[in-house]
Amino acid sequence: MLFPVFLLLIFLLKPDLSKSEADTRNIIIPALEKATFFLENKYRDINLDGVVGFHILQVYLERALEKWASKHELLSQKARVERLVKKLSSSIEKATHSLGQSDPKYFKEFEPILQPHFWTLSPSWNHTDSSYAYSKFDSINCFTEKMSDKCYLYLLGTWKDHGRSCVVTKNCRKIMTKFGCSGYSLSHQLFYLMIADMKRCSDPLFQRAQYYKNIFCASMMKLNLMIESNGFRIQSRDLFMENIMFCGMSGFSDFYKRRWLETILTWQKPEEGCYGMPSENSEHPSLVKDQKQPLRRVKRKEQMFADGCSSHNTAVAVAALGGFLYYY
Nearest Cα to 188, choosing from 295, 113, 311? Predict the structure, then answer.
């Protein structure tokens, strides 16, 4: 008779995981509603990075609704997300049109990644293996942003009019598989592999894509843990969220740590709904003035607003939060 009693105790003491997941969803959805409100207000001025981030968010929301379709206990959350997707679709369409007018050359080059069905999510979940991470990082500036953009255009087929897609040049092969890179260089290497996935490129390089993803995301996890141990310094937060966005999309679920979600939510500007730099009177203002980050968005592409909102910060934040919602 002791055995059934033992099983009963286990059942009673088992944590209510479904309630925990519901609570997590209930703190993410309001943050995404605020961010969508920001997009509604700023769609004329938001840059390409910002539009891409909201595109990725839209994919996550639509996939989440598919997962929740048969779960009647999620009716209220489903209704909120459905309304969110409707608002998001309208604002993304307007922002995309505005972007094409304000920066037509850059828009034309990256137009493929603004298509509704370009982005897909990893079909399965994985975990990073710390043994794959670099023992040391050789450089935070392995290549320039101009160089990485050129490699993306070769994959997208927009490097020239009527260009062939999935072109892998000798230089791109070299810099996009170079080991030891850090910072934005490292995340841009992963982004290169992701674009190849979306385009279904068949170059032999991409037959080893998972091998490189395992190394890159293990190293990006190491960087994120370092950023956390250093107290989430202001100049590191954008990279921290970008790493979660890219590795989460690549199927590495250990980037969706609950404590990281709670931290990211505290960085959102409550009134504006965006992410960006704190005001002059807030924590460590000198870090904002003095920061020098390789591969940060140059002025042509980054958009900082008068209220401290940043298109790139907001883009990586909403894409990361969308991943958290989908995972939970």
Answer: 295
Q: Is the dihedral of CA 183, 322, 83, 114 positive or negative?
A: positive
Q: How many domains does the chain have?
A: 1
pTM > 0.85:
yes
- What's the domain range around 219? 17-277+294-327
The rounded distance, in Å, linking the Cα atoms of 59 and 322 is: 8
The residues, ordered by sequence, that sit 6+ positions from 168 with a Cβ below 8 Å of its Cβ are 154, 155, 201, 203, 205
Give the pair of three-digit tokens for residue 153: 């255009």
282 assigned to some structural domain: no
Strand partners, 310: 304
Write out pLDDT tens, residues 41-81.
999 999 999 999 999 999 999 999 999 988 887 888 999 99
Query: 167-172 long-range CB contacts below 8 Å, 24 or more apart?
Result: 168/201, 168/203, 168/205, 171/147
304: β partners: 310
